[in-house]
Design goal:
Keywords: Heme, Iron, Metal-binding, Molybdenum, Oxidoreductase. By secondary structure, the protein is mainly beta. It is about 10% helix and about 40% strand. It has 5 helices and 23 strands. Strands 4-3-12-7-8 form a 5-stranded mixed β-sheet. Strands 5, 6, 9, 10 and 11 form a 5-stranded antiparallel β-sheet that branches. It has a 5-stranded mixed β-sheet with strand order 16-23-22-18-19, with no helix packed on it. β9 and β10 (about 170) form a beta hairpin. The longest helix is centred in the N-terminal third of the chain and has 8 residues, at about 115-120. The radius of gyration is 21 Å and the shape is globular. The model has no long low-confidence stretch (mean pLDDT about 95).
Length: about 350
């Protein structure tokens, strides 16, 4: 793991852990805004409240017995993934300098959030479902637990889970035990860990982190920004990464295998990945794995014949709506460094 901060713990997965369809638990990235809470699963209860006719208070055992277990393979990605590329354009003080490894995939199992909300009988005027965790963040003033919300339409989609299991094992403490939300296709910040409360609301959550995860205009001061000043983040934007060769690798010239993954977000899929080694004069279409479902990454590979000297590899992805990544990180720079959807750039050197 590449550890950026020890407390709160923030670490990205190494490239070698991202080559398979499922990320091992000990290599799954960690993103936190507060110390990891330790919760007694026996005394823990989940509250379901707000604009509902039947408020609920459920133990983990009650959740397991009253609602059938479902599983979904889903890729989670931090909204700040590849922020380091944006920092190279212009500095972004106070933010974690994520490389391309703030992304991982797991098989999640738990109760369908839609089933739980149906039992609580969400009222027609509810338009958003908010989540509140147990991790108390000092980043907010005054300090508050991490939280956020998603629209009711997303919350009641079949893929959204209240997960108690990860890769066939009990959910680890570091990843939200005893229970977390998993919102496939949306930024990782909406998959709230150490879940304490689910609240049906008429408006989006007023939690600090609901609006903090927004893209501000380039000229904005992030320390003075108010809710509504930016574009609140939800569905993941299209993303692509080069896994092999590694950054600044020195390789023999000639045929070279280039591999990576791409992720479309929401319920879209990746339709195509193109790779160039000559600044876009020519592009080669990579072989692309089919998606397991619309919420997982897709791995790709191609072989290019590389000449001696310094090479900049560029990989760009297209999604199923024909949206394509912009070529330069400079075009998507923003003062919080979120949603870097620019094409992946990698510098290597080839020996004669």
């Amino acid at each position: 793991m590449l550890v950026h901060q020890a407390e709160p713990y923030n670490a990205e997965s190494p490239p070698g852990a991202l080559v398979g369809s499922i990320t091992p638990l000990d290599a799954f990235y960690g993103r936190n805004h507060a110390p990891i809470p330790r919760i007694d699963p026996e005394s823990w209860r989940l509250r379901v409240e707000g604009l509902v006719d039947r408020p609920l208070e459920l133990s983990l055992e009650e959740l397991r017995h009253r609602f059938g277990e479902r599983s979904v393979v889903a890729t989670l990605q931090c909204a700040g993934n590849r922020r380091a590329d944006l920092i190279e354009v212009r500095d972004i003080p106070g933010q974690v300098p994520w490389g391309p490894g703030a992304v991982s995939t797991a098989c999640w199992s738990g109760a369908s959030l839609a089933d739980v909300l149906a039992e609580a009988r969400v009222r027609p005027e509810a338009a958003h479902i908010a989540f509140t965790g147990a991790d108390l963040s000092q980043q907010a003033e005054p300090p508050q637990p991490f939280g956020g919300s998603v629209p009711v339409a997303k919350a009641t989609s079949s893929e959204v889970l209240l997960a108690w299991s990860m890769n066939g094992q009990p959910l680890p403490t570091a990843h939200g035990a005893p229970l977390r939300v998993v919102v496939p296709g949306w930024i990782g910040a909406r998959s709230v860990k150490w879940l304490q409360c689910v609240t049906a609301l008429a408006e989006p959550s007023d939690n600090y982190f609901q609006s903090e995860y927004s893209v501000l205009p380039p000229e904005a001061d992030p320390h003075r920004a108010k809710p509504g000043d930016g574009i609140t983040l939800g569905p993941i934007t299209i993303h692509c990464a080069i896994l092999q060769p590694g950054k600044d690798a020195r390789l023999p010239s000639g045929p070279t295998e280039i591999t990576g993954f791409a992720l479309a977000g929401d319920n879209r899929t990746v339709a195509r990945v193109d790779v160039t080694a000559d600044h876009g004069n020519t592009w080669t279409r990579a072989d692309l794995d089919p998606p397991e479902n619309p919420w997982t990454w897709q791995h790709w590979r191609t072989t290019l014949t590389l000449p001696p000297g310094g090479i900049e590899l560029i990989a760009r992805a297209w999604d199923s709506t024909a949206a394509v990544q912009p070529e330069s990180p400079a075009t998507v720079w923003n003062p919080r460094g979120y949603a870097n959807e620019a094409a992946a750039h990698l510098h290597i050197t080839c020996r004669p």
